[in-house]
Amino acid sequence: xxxxxxxxxxxxxxxxxxxxxxxxxxxxxxxxxxxxxxxxxxxxxxxxxxxxxxxxxxxxxxxxxxxxxxxxxxxxxxxxxxxxxxxxxxxxxxxxxxxxxxxxxxxxxxxxxxxxxxxxxxxxxxxxxxxxxxxxxxxxxxxxxxxxxxxxxxxxxxxxxxxxxxxxxxxxxxxxxxxxxxxxxxxxxxxxxxxxxxxxxxxxxxxxxxxxxxxxxxxxxxxxxxxxxxxxxxxxxxxxxxxxxxxxxxxxxxxxxxxxxxxxxxxxxxxxxxx
Amino acid sequence: xxxxxxxxxxxxxxxxxxxxxxxxxxxxxxxxxxxxxxxxxxxxxxxxxxxxxxxxxxxxxxxxxxxxxxxxxxxxxxxxxxxxxxxxxxxxxxxxxxxxxxxxxxxxxxxxxxxxxxxxxxxxxxxxxxxxxxxxxxxxxxxxxxxxxxxxxxxxxxxxxxxxxxxxxxxxxxxxxxxxxxxxxxxxxxxxxxxxxxxxxxxxxxxxxxxxxxxxxxxxxxxxxxxxxxxxxxxxxxxxxxxxxxxxxxxxxxxxxxxxxxxxxxxxxxxxxxxxxxxxxxxxxxxxxxxxxxxxxxxxxxxxxxxx
Lengths: 275, 308
Prior knowledge:
heterodimer; A: 275 residues; alpha/beta; Rossmann fold; globular; B: 308 residues; 7-stranded mixed beta sheet; 5-stranded mixed beta sheet; 12 helices; 12 strands; 19% strand
């Protein structure tokens, strides 16, 4: 069995907090009607560990000077980000029920006018360069804060990421931590078929990143990797995740990448499985 | 003009710690003084325009004012989405210095000719565009770029142009400059086409025909007040641009007039390039002449239209 399958085969049982965060998304989606379901569900443990254990922030002062920065470059995973931000008190949880509506504060991709969202993303291949610029700014100002950026696996099809990777290693940005949500499914289908990324770890190591691979739903592995840093090198954690994690019908199912309609049966199943 | 522009960046950077310089893969020795004196704020990032714009956005989000420099076509075409999303959507103070506006890189062929850059940039929300006509104006406008909100595109000419603005005391970003006070023929121009407009004006004056030139060194935001007043006063108007006519400077003037002026608009004649790739090489001057955008040809054409 190859390594990718090993990571995926180790089924992680979701605890109450992981289920609650998913439940926020489900209830929001049922009312708002559409969104990137699978892309958000693969991210939950990554975001949870970052906001529970790693990042310095103050939800009452989202622009506080000495905060750490987290950029969700795969903006289509924003339902996951909205869930954790609302859980932390950046805005009210019921905002998730209005995502994408005329007078909603929250769009189908994140915008930096939303408290807690550092950069507007959605079109892919932008976040890493913005993160590099931020990490460089911190170096110039001798700020000790960290910069995290989450990329999608399909997202790194975009060449701009590799320009940014060259730059990050050139500047030895050891305050930069890149996270790849490697759920192995992009919009059309499996990444191995659309545009194969392997050998992914070797690629980033050849760009002079310090790379770890973890199960992206294993809280301990995630925390350990996110706390690591290496002098003079940018860090990268490849998180092997399951698209649509937490629901039997959506796991590893490309059809649940994005949904713009939910049947009564689907709604019932979502609620039933997240109990 | 390019030299003045980059020297201005260095001078500003010495006084203001927020200023950053980012180049792509410029010629050897460019801004060596900046690199040697302020190495922490000097970056040469390689042929990676998409990344450079994103990186400058990250720096601007953290309080810096990056001045980014590369060839005009690369800064406007190559990283268009980064300009729109990373800079304009976030409304960040990044200054984009585009070398070779217009036909400056004539010998290098169509990949390097920035003859669509004004059109490309002017439809981006929050984006400002400046296009000075000489190094004196460049110096004054560069001073203003430090504290201007949002992104700015700076269209550079080749340089060595005659200084024509030294009589003007108030040169400011967003303000037009008027040459002459006459009320008959009005030539509206930007960039180095103002140099040509002034030569045409001289020819008209020699023939005792009144002619004034309205130079718009800032294309966006346009000095609408000055434009309205001068167009209202004129009998016939000509616009000049070193740019394709489609979506360019003259089109912008027509749109502004249509949206802001009601009655009795004089006829506005546009002179510029056709919407084609440039298939000839040579020098900038030779190409301008080839496309009938030199002072002699334009003067004759204008004279014919006046007499109609």
